Amino acid sequence: MTDIYAWGLGTCRESATGVMLDCFFPAPQKAPEADVSSAILANFEVGVSRIEPSEISAKLAGLPEHITAGLAPLTECDRPLVSVLLTNDSTIESTAEAYLKLHLLSHRLAEPNSQNLDGLFAQLPNVAWTTQGPIAAEDLPAALTRAQVSGEHLEVQSLDKFPRMVNYVVPTGVRIADASRVRLGAYLGEGTTVMHEGQVNFNSGTAGPAMVEGRISQGVVLGAHTDLGGGASTMGTLSGGNSVVISIGESCLIGANAGCGIPLGDRCTIEAGLYITAATPVSLIDENGEKVKNVRARELAGGSDMLFIRNGATGEVQCRTNRRAIELNEALHAHN
Prior knowledge:
Blueprint: E1 6-14, E2 20-24, E3 29-30, H1 34-43, E4 47-51, H2 53-61, H3 65-68, E5 81-86, H4 95-106, H5 120-123, E6 127-130, E7 133-136, H6 140-150, E8 156-160, E9 175-176, E10 192-194, E11 199-200, E12 205-206, E13 210-212, E14 215-216, E15 221-222, E16 226-228, E17 233-234, E18 247-248, E19 253-254, E20 259-260, E21 269-270, E22 275-276, E23 281-285, E24 291-296, E25 306-310, E26 317-321, H7 330-333
Parallel strand pairs: 9-10, 10-13, 11-14, 12-15, 13-16, 15-18, 16-19, 17-20, 19-21, 20-22, 21-25, 23-26
Antiparallel strand pairs: 1-2, 1-3, 1-5, 4-5, 6-7, 6-8, 23-24, 25-26
């Protein structure tokens, strides 16, 4: 029997010229069990296919009830649906495949950096995300003119390849102060709070309860009980020539306006305003306050219980033992 990597059935919207703009998969499946895989393969084609409204009920009737529970509203759709059935995790070759993999991330079915996302940008069109739905970027000027002439309100929320996550997926147990700053494809662990200036890119996120007041770049994951302070940032892998995937462990604190360009283990702190990159010269300080040696920050990558501070008198970046584990204020997360 053919294995299924992932499957999704949902709606799609297209431009006037037939270009697919987005897809919505309400209940995607990742590596389903053998009986579910058999039922899906018996009713849906491998690859990307269109399903006419008249076919939906019969095809869903052939699937187990626990799978169809989240798909039942699709029987009310009066336009063709799209099915994406992937038997392996290969290069993305269509907009529908791109949206399925982004949904898997935001549904917490696939962890960041666990999927092959090659081809993603090439298959995502640039879209105007508006109060009247997605509009192809090249069609936006005409749409704005029509709205003004007819007296309608058309607000353009963004012009981007990625929509807001919460317009497609709403993970349980999270708070997001400004939904425009969390892209579809973000992975938010249960108990995460993203404040107004926090930003979470696709294929990145948090592994558990976390406070996000800074920027989580593509590919970066924060461990549980970690705090990314206001204005702080993490170095991604999409620009700047950086090929190292950055991860921050559990119970860490990246201070306000600080930054991190190396992987960190657990219980690490970077003081406010200090940006650590792989090439940053760092002095190792022992428990007696004596300098042990000088290293580059990359030599400390992945270490735990580290406190990075800048000497106020000399400007020297120092690494000491972090004697105090950072704990998030439980009151901030108790009612997520």
